[in-house]
Structure formats: structure tokens, C-alpha cells
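Here is one chain, start to finish.
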Amino acid sequence: MSKTDNIYQSLYNPLKELGLSEMETNTYMASLKLGPTTISEIANNLSIARPNVYKIIQGLERKGLAKFSLKKNYERSFMVESPTVVLEKFRQKKKEDQLRENELVMAMPNLLANYQQGLMPSKIKIVQGKEDFKKIFFDILDEADKLIWFCGSAKDFIGFISWSDEKKWIKQRMKKGLFINSLLFPDEDAETLHKTDKEEMREIRIMKGFTPFTTSFQIFANKVIFWQPLAPLAITIEDKYLVDMMRSVIEKLWEYSLK
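Its structure:
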């Protein structure tokens, strides 16, 4: 592919994201190369019938990406709008898409709280690798509603994701007003976290009488995640009944643990 072809190809995806059909996209790029031209020339260039070209141009005009010249009908030529118009419209769409995404993220906790699973099957997702592990960890903040539970080894979990990411997660959690109850084994990382419980919207309780393990689990909304940092492996289970069971277990452990 030539350099020129590459330049024109960079327009393809933005045009498609703006809702243009395949023929509208091809017509826009053909017109861009040809400059002001007649319907006949466009039809010949694309090897399509003239009536179809008129329909395609009408679609481009409705999207604000084409216009006819103001000359008399028999002399009229067709020309698409400048690529700068495409860029402006593409940027505007991205802003609108981001706004809708933000609205959905804000509504997600309430949507999940009202989701009735009934007899629908459980959803289980297994991911491996550090990047996916950390992505799921941060995704919790988009779905959690008010209270998050964590149970397990702070040392092994934070040792894997790093203190830098842990602090970043805490900051984002606090910004969203999400409180966390953490049941931890006694270790240096648990003690470090415990010192800042009040200012970081957290309560830590220490588990006694357990043989320490490297894994952990986290409960939020209608999901439970089992973390295995040595693999590394994360298993997400979306099932109201399993989550209710795990929440009942952790609440009972919470009662018998030390503050």
C-alpha cells in the first residue's frame, strides 16, 4: 500500500464510526481524491449506477459531509466536505460517547443492585496474567455499590500488584465514596494499611486461628473474585446465590475477628 493510500485509509475507521455505510465511505474518499466532479464521474469511478449515487450523496448530505455546488442543475458538481469536518464530527462523537460511558459507569452499581438473576446460569470469567489481573481489580470500582469486602493476604496481593497500584486504587475508591471492610492476616502490609483506616474509608480486622494462605477473595455488587497472585489467576463469578453465601461467610468471620 502506497503512502497516499495509507493517508486515505486513516479516514476509513472514523467515517465508519460516524455511521457511514460502506458505499457512503467509499464515495466520500473517491470524491476527496477527484475533487469537485459530476455524478457521472463518481458513478464511473465507483462502478455503480447514477441513481444509486444520488441516494448515497443524499445520505452524506444528511450527515453534513457533502454538498452540491450552487450552479444551475445541468452544471452542478458534487464535492464532499473537508476532512477537517470529519475530524470535528469524530471528536464530537468521541465526547458524546465518553459522556454516555460515564453515565453508564455511574449508574452501574444501581443497575446491578436491581438485576434479578432468577434461574439464569452463573457467569464465570477466568483470566491469567498480570495486566488482566490488575484490570479486573480496577474494574471493581465501576461496579461496586457502597461496600466492598476483601479477605485474605494483604502481603501477597499487594506484593503482586505493587503498592503504587494499591494507592492508586485506594484514591479512586475514595473518590467514588466506596468503603471497604478487609479481613487480613497479620503482616507488615496489613499493619501499614491499618494505620490509615479512618482517612482511607476502610476498616481492617485481623484473622486469628487460620493457617495463612496466599490467596484472597473480594465481594462487591453481585460478584465475587478469587485472587491467586502466584499464577497469576483471577476467577470472577457473577451469581447472586453464590455471592450471598460468600457474603454470609465473611460477615460471620468479621464478627469473630479482632479490630
